[in-house]
Amino acid sequence: MSKLYATLFSVIIVAAILYGTPVTANAAGASSSDFLSEEGTPPPGANDASCRPSDEHPNPVVLVPGTFETMERNFIDLAPVLKQKGYCVYSLNYGYTGSVPASGPIEDSAMELKIFIDHVLQLTGAEKVSIVGHSQGGMMPRYYTKFLGGDQKVDDLIGLVPSNHGTKGVAGLTELTTTGADLASCEACHQQSADSDFIAKLNEGDETPGNISYTNVSTRNDEIVVPYTSAFLSGNPSQTTNVTIQDYYPYDQIEHQNIAQDPLAFKFVFDALDHDGPADAKRASGIFQ
């Protein structure tokens, strides 16, 4: 019988070669979680290949860092809290120009996100993910959902100061910001200009496509996304929530960069993840009127 099994196995291998059936990494015995190690050092609690979504939290959470940021730095506080709350948490680095992260063409970065999410869904067996992104990381996934089929694979898109409508320049200094982008060879910086062709294409037509819940959290002290209301999206209120954090926490003077480490901003993230639909700002902040 062993000779028969060996013959059958040989026939299967030969047939695969002759008829073009690919021998995948999994078939070759490689781990399907190899893509996680390729991303580099994750923030604490993220990229645990053994995590499987629970009935309570069926959607893995994908954390997407902002321009010039790595996942390790950007989500050092949020990732472990989400893990502690019972979510499967994943994150990636993307858009490298040389050694500079999240600076390449946003279209290419969105394709990297698409591939990463496909891997996460395959690894976990989940049907959809929820995305939490900071700055460019809150805006770039919209290209994925609008043009790369992500509308079928995303349940929540939560942006912390996302550059949804671009910026008029750091502190409103357009020319200085453009010069800095040139010096850094940052194509993504140019594309995040409020008057760029990329921003115009992204926001043409429906700003909130698909059956996705959109939550955008901004701060009046945002010195990068200017004006701060550029973070907000037009959409059905049942599908879209725009939050200015000082409307609910007047003494929270958080600015653009540190909002990704702000426990008060996290309240809106958790509310969006824990409930159907986008965040309910009053519920999240404990204000019931």
Automatic annotation (TrEMBL):
GO molecular function, one term: hydrolase activity
Keyword Hydrolase: yes
Keywords recorded for this protein, A-Z: Hydrolase, Signal
SUPFAM superfamilies given in the database record: alpha/beta-Hydrolases
Record region (Disordered): 33-57
Keyword field contains Signal: yes
Stretches assigned to coiled coil: none
InterPro entries attached to this UniProt entry: AB_hydrolase_fold (IPR029058), Lipase_EstA/Esterase_EstB (IPR002918)
Signal sequence range: 1-27
Protein name per Swiss-Prot or TrEMBL: Triacylglycerol esterase/lipase EstA (Alpha/beta hydrolase family)
Phylogenetic placement of the source organism: Bacteria, Bacillati, Bacillota, Bacilli, Bacillales
